[in-house]
Design a protein that fits this description.
Low-confidence stretches: 1-9
Distance between the termini: 77 Å
Number of strands: 11
Number of helices: 32
Strand order of the largest sheet: 6-5-9-11-10
Mean pLDDT: 90
Shape: globular
Largest sheet: 5 strands, mixed
Radius of gyration: 30 Å
Helix content: 55-70%
Length: 827
């Protein structure tokens, strides 16, 4: 096929390249890498509840999206007013849409569960580490690729965020994979001689990535974007344009035309040549492959923009500009074919943002762009930590343990680079370094600092360390040995730091850094879940579900009969009961193993054995953290088990609402075994209200399916709740003249677990508000409380150090008429 030689063809690749020679057994190695990553990130993915506040915050937005069938406008919070306070709920403008779409798709596929909420993060992490191998193996060599993938996958911040349903993996993973394909486009080997089958496979892969990022968005616009506005009185042309703007169908047509235009630009030359029977020359074939890599890069920058906002494309763009300025290779900008890139980028990144502007206007713009972008960067909104250049050194050190030991050596090796525009290896390494350096500097100067904000700098550093260690295997020089000695000192320092603070890994991914380590960890089935005095009993029937009456006539209060044990896997329960896995024991094991491995690496003849030891350290800490460390803390950082108590106490009155949105595809296909394995549930609704007092974490909304009544200002909202919401129509006793009547009912109170929040304080608060209602004879619920003497409260959850639950019941006056509320029952 004839094809005009463009400036891009003369520019790409950068530097001299050699033809791609597939290493032996490459497909087997790729499959092995993929399987290993799946084994690291997928087991026990749903073995413990979602953590507060972020996993449950985003999870609830997803749950509402699935239930409401509105995939354009995210929503969080209770929709109705309680008292004269404004409603808690509102449109959720704080985060972009990617995490919610991915989680919602997962819920529709496998059902509503922790598995479904976390699965997208795990899959993105797997793909990120896999393509780190794929790209690094091609740009440098297989050993570099393997090390880069293993270093990334076994770095604590990476594997912790792979199991936390937060936006960070949704941003960093697609951006990282996009940058890896940019590396392949600029510095990858000459692939002009690949087989026809391999060539077609690469084109299909690139187009599939592009179409998967565009076509589903058009479908969502068609089904979920429509505004019923009246433009009467406006001129006909203006009325037509405004009506067209409000229609998702019209939006989809515009983006569909852009997609079609790009496909024509990309494919027509090849199709025309194929029709004429002409073959691509090796040079043209290599250029086409590189353009496909650039398509993947641009597409994934658009996906990253849906994951985190402006940073999704601005950070890669800034990195490219810094690289171009540093090397003075301005022709790179021409090689990127910016008009073609924009034609691909717009239908990926723009549809949801434009739809939100159309539907919500300035409210969305002010919150999303001004507050959550520019103010976080410049003024420090939500700031709970501070520091300058050194701040993230600590958290990158913890987040890349044990591989952080080689950061100084990697920087040392970079300082020895002799830059040459014809040296592909050096230029690729320089781009990766600038990727790391710019990411680190950007988040260092940002005013708002969460520990996980340094995550974008981790993948490029993993690549740099992988390249350094790969070269170190052949390096017998003094610099290499000095670097290993430096690594020993840094490793010992970080290990000592970790040994003194068991929550440092937790602090990589969650909030409230000053929160104390829970006192009651599930490290033995026989250990009590709390210091609370167990309830007395005479038989098992007097204890709550799953509890037993002990010979001491108290209800069992150990982890073995806890909600946590009931809802965790046998693997997790077994691991938590093994003393060998205790935090101090594992830190000691890794310290000894890491130190011995580093000392071996000082001697070139056994350097590979030392490297194998470090890989073993990384793999064991990843498995331990996923199946031991996170589950160990989850009974306290998650509200799941508190709400399981609530649903159990509802007993046979608990309703399983058969909402079609909660029936996943696997169940419709008859895969009930898989449905049960993933622990999926339908919506559960209890006739006994659950309220929250003076607390807004997020899990209470998610785990109650947004049925919880939030009393954020208890002093002004408790009375309206007791007066207008709590009383309900109940069935009168048989033979009573009225069949139904308005009566008070049991309800539950969810609170933070503090000494001041006792059962007596809860009952006192409720009784005080009931007294006001009784005094005001004209209030709506006055008649419901005529025969009520008082309310009594009892603490019903004793296995969470941070959150707790109280059951509150009305106590009727002695001799109360059984035709009144004393004899009424729930319908």
């Amino acid at each position: 096929m004839e094809q005009t030689t463009t400036s891009c063809a003369r520019i790409l690749p950068l530097g001299e390249v050699t033809p791609w020679q597939r290493p032996r057994n490459e497909w087997a190695v790729r499959l092995g890498v993929l399987l290993l990553l799946c084994m690291l990130f997928l087991p026990n993915l749903g073995a413990f509840g979602l953590w507060d506040p972020w996993e449950t915050h985003y999870g609830e937005v997803t749950r509402n999206m699935v239930e409401s069938y509105d995939w354009v406008s995210p929503w969080w919070g209770y929709r109705n007013k309680i008292g004269d306070q404004g409603a808690q709920g509102s449109y959720f403008y704080s985060k972009p849409i990617l995490i919610f779409w991915m989680e919602a798709a997962s819920v529709r596929l496998i059902g509503f569960s922790e598995w479904a909420i976390r699965l997208p993060m795990a899959m993105f992490a797997i793909l990120c580490a896999f393509f780190a191998y794929y790209a690094a193996a091609k740009v440098w060599n297989r050993r570099t690729g393997l090390l880069a993938a293993l270093i990334a996958a076994t770095s604590p911040q990476f594997f912790m965020l792979a199991r936390q349903a937060q936006t960070d993996m949704m941003f960093v993973a697609p951006m990282t994979v996009g940058m890896l394909f940019l590396l392949l486009a600029l510095f990858g080997p000459d692939e002009g001689a690949v087989s026809r089958r391999s060539f077609i496979a690469k084109q299909v892969f690139g187009l599939c990535v592009f179409l998967l990022a565009t076509i589903p968005q058009c479908v969502i616009l068609i089904t979920d974007l429509s505004l019923d506005k009246n433009y009467e009185g406006l001129p006909p042309l203006q009325r037509f344009l405004l009506g067209a703007k409000d229609s998702g169908v019209n939006h989809a047509i515009v983006y569909g035309l852009l997609v079609a235009g790009f496909l024509a630009w990309h494919l027509v030359p090849m199709i025309r040549g194929s029709v004429r029977g002409r073959k691509l020359s090796p040079e043209q074939r290599d250029l086409t492959i590189r353009r496909t890599y650039l398509l993947v890069f641009v597409t994934l920058c658009g996906v990253a923009s849906l994951g985190k906002g402006l940073l999704g494309f601005m950070l890669p763009g800034a990195i490219i500009l810094v690289y171009v300025a540093a090397t003075r290779q301005w022709v790179v900008l021409k090689a990127l074919e910016i008009p073609r890139a924009l034609l691909a980028f717009i239908p990926v990144a723009f549809p949801w943002y434009v739809a939100m502007f159309v539907k919500h206007g300035n409210g969305f713009y002010s919150r999303f762009f001004i507050h959550d972008h520019f103010n976080r960067l410049g003024t420090g909104v939500h700031q709970i930590d501070s520091g300058t250049f050194e701040h993230f050194l600590k958290w990158l050190g913890v987040g890349m343990y044990p591989w952080v030991a080689f950061v100084p050596l990697a920087i040392l090796v970079l300082s020895r680079l002799r830059l040459s525009l014809k040296t592909r290896d050096n230029q690729a390494t320089l781009l990766v370094f600038l990727w790391f350096f710019f990411s680190y500097i950007l988040f260092t100067i940002a005013k708002t600092k969460f520990h996980h904000y340094i995550f974008p700098a981790l993948p490029p550093m993993a690549l740099l360390i992988g390249k350094t260690l790969s070269d170190l295997a052949r390096d017998r020089g003094v610099v290499a040995r000095a670097g290993v000695l430096l690594a020993v000192g840094l490793f010992v320092a970080v290990t000592y730091n970790l040994s003194n603070e068991p929550q440092m890994w937790r602090d990589l991914v969650t909030y409230k850094y000053d929160r104390a380590l829970p006192k009651h960890l599930p490290l033995s089935a026989d250990d009590p879940t709390s210091e609370d005095k167990p309830e007395s009993c005479q038989s098992d029937a007097e204890c709550r579900p799953h509890k037993e009456c002990t010979p001491e006539n108290t209800c069992s209060d150990t982890w073995e009969t806890s909600q946590f044990y009931q809802h965790s896997t046998s693997t997790v329960r077994w691991a938590l009961n093994q003393d060998a896995f205790l935090y101090d024991n594992m830190i000691l094991f890794w310290g000894v193993l890491g130190l011995a491995s580093l000392l071996l690496m000082f001697f070139p003849v056994v350097r590979r054995a030392g490297l194998v030891g470090l890989v073993l350290l990384g793999l064991t800490q990843t498995g331990w953290a996923m199946s031991y460390y996170l589950p160990m803390l989850s009974p306290h950082w998650s509200q799941k088990n508190v709400f399981e108590d609530y649903y159990d106490l509802c007993g046979d009155k608990l309703k399983h609402v058969e909402v079609d949105a909660y029936e996943p595809i696997i169940k419709k296909l008859g895969m009930d075994g898989l449905y049960d394995y993933f622990g999926a549930t339908v919506k559960r609704v209890c006739p006994y209200n659950i309220t929250s007092w003076l607390i807004v974490w997020r899990g209470e909304t998610y785990y109650s399916y947004n049925e919880l009544l939030p009393l954020e200002k208890k002093n002004v909202q408790l009375q309206p709740y007791l007066d207008s919401i709590n009383p309900m129509m109940m069935e009168s006793a048989a033979g009573c003249p009225q069949p139904r009547q308005l009566c008070p009912r049991r309800f539950f109170v969810f609170m933070e677990n503090r000494e001041a929040n006792s059962a007596s304080s809860v009952a006192s608060g409720v009784n005080a508000e009931m007294a006001k209602i009784k005094k005001d004879g004209g209030s709506p619920g006055h008649a419901a409380y005529v025969d009520v003497e008082k309310w009594e409260a009892v603490k019903v959850n004793r296995e969470n150090d941070y959150f707790t639950l109280f059951q509150v019941d009305p106590v009727f006056k002695k001799g109360a008429d059984t035709c009144g509320c004393a004899g009424a029952t729930l319908p």
